[in-house]
Request: fold
Amino acid sequence: MIYQDLYMNAALFYLAGVLGFWLVVWKVSTKLAWRPLRWWLTWLYLCVVLTPWQGSEPEAYYAPAIIVGAFDFLDVGLTQTLNVLQPMINALIVGTAGIVLLAVVLKIRDLKNAKVTSEPTEDSV
Reply:
């Protein structure tokens, strides 16, 4: 079994890498004009790299589900991989639905605000 302090150091380095690449994703996504697309790309990145899953034997430590799924695909096949990736897929679906709902609400709000500001007032006539 791997030493606990080595595991914690690896987890801290992984977290630092996630934060560093998240800044890159954020900086690149600021060039996209549509805010919900920026939110979705950030959500996609965070779901893929941060959804935890407990690895199988011989080392039963937590790791990102995408990594555990990749090794399970090589070791035991597609069925076990889909079981491992299910929480990540669920998070992606729920987050995507939330972002789409928020985008629709913001668009409706913007249309209402544009309609109110474009109507002529009685004083201007």
